[in-house]
Amino acid sequence: MKFLAHVLARVLLPVAILAAGGYGYAVLSVQPEPEAIEPPPEQVLRSRASSLSVCDYPVRIETHGVVGAHNQVTLSAEVTGVIRSTESAFEAGAFFEKGELLLEIDNRDYRTALKVAQEQHELAKANLKIAQNAHSRMQELARQRSASTSEVDGTFASLVQAESEVEITASSIEIAQRNLEKTRIYAPFDGRVVSKTVGVGQLVSAGTTLGEVFAVDFAEVRLPISSRDLRHLELPEMEGDPAVDVELRDAIDSTRGAVWRGKIVRTEGTLDADSLELFAIARVEDPFGLRTENPVLRIGQPVTATIYGETLHDIVVIPRKAVRRLDQVYLIDEDKLTLRSLTIDPLWSDSQNVVVSGHSILDNELLATTMLVYAPEGSPVEIIPEERPASSLAGEPPELDTTP
Question: Is position 40 within any domain?
């Protein structure tokens, strides 16, 4: 019996193992039915939108410059002498009118020189009268054969010399008169004093600097204009060309509301060697408000300038903050609410707007103004209602939102 149990154990155990293995293979080899996988919901982008319309756009070019005097000169002495007096109009910052006395040099020596010249002129005229009489008598004696030809020639030579002396002394009077006039320095134009470099009692000579002044009838501003902007402007090149309007504002204090209106009256003949910009010259009448109620525009004042150029027709204005890199914008189909990207070719741009041709925008499309980080072509879009914009400092527009 033990032998039989031993034999059965050795036979049945492998059979059981094989049966269990076959059953396990049969169970595990059956492929499970695939579970139904639901597709993920389509992602809907959320963006604010603004309508676009075809319109006309006047180009305004922004540039900058520094106000300068159109005529600034250095006053110099023309004669030697001691400064006898200076007028209140010849002080730093003082205004003066054309022909107004500014300062005076001691003129006593020049009055004496003028008197001497006048007396010499009178003496020369008397000598001329004597020479004329002598020559007349000698000619009469020669006709009576009582004088020789050489004697007549001698009186004629004396007459010529006397006439020359009269002319020379007359010129001396003119020189002495001019020197006397030069002792009084008058204003060459309506202007203002920049600096005074002399005082009463100071000895000056011809060429000594007395001070610096500039004219106040109008001021000029040298404005750089890039080659890109020149195509939108018709600047005056020749005399008689129409001037171009320009507005100037304070570049130091932007909160100051002062506006100076001027005109570009000419351009320089060459481009700047470094920047390849053309400089236009703007003129502002009465910069110190002497004849009008204009605010004061000081010489040396930095200003920003707005130049009015041509008007672009049939265009669309896009806010610069809605333009992505590589000149790309996103448009929303107003009917289908789907997204479309568009690479624009700007006709004009500034710090606020980008102007493109109206032919590239469809009539039923809106501009996506939210900064979309991921925006596949044709994606559905949910338009976010516009919020009431909050006031910001310095009048800046609110920043664009960012939507992933």
Answer: no
What would the pLDDT profile of 336-346 be if each residue is shown by its tens digit? 888 888 888 88
Give me the mean pLDDT over the 203-220 stretch. 95
Query: In terms of residue numbers, what domain contains 84?
Result: 78-106+183-207
The 10s digit of each residue's pLDDT in 143-185 is 888 778 888 888 889 989 999 999 999 999 999 999 999 999 9
Helices (H), 182-230: 227-230
- Is this model's pTM higher than 0.90 or not? no
Contact 223, 308 (CB under 8 A): no
Same domain, 177 and 194: no
User: Which residues touch 102 (CB under 8 Å, ≥6 apart)?
Assistant: 75, 86, 87, 89, 90, 96, 185, 186, 187, 210, 211
Same domain, 96 and 116: no
Q: Please check whether residue 5 lies inside any domain of the structure.
A: no
Tell whether 200 is covered by a domain.
yes
- What CATH number has the domain bearing residue 322? 2.40.420
Among 249, 250, 223, 251, residue whose Cα is nearest residue 235: 223
Q: In degrees rounded to 5, what are phi and psi of residue 35?
A: -80, 145
Tell the residue number behind the tokens 């049945």, with chain if given: 12
In a domain, 28, yes or no: no
Name the domain count of the chain.
Answer: 4
What are the tens digits of pLDDT across the range 322-333? Answer: 888 778 888 888
pLDDT bin (cut points 50, 70, 90) of residue 31 is: low
Cβ atoms of residues 327 and 360 within 8 Å? no
Q: Are residues 117 and 95 in the same domain?
A: no
Looking at the predicted structure, is the pLDDT value of residue 75 above 90?
Answer: yes
To the nearest 10°, the Cα dihedral for 333, 339, 341, 342? Answer: 10
- pLDDT for 404: 41
**306 and 246 inside one domain:** yes
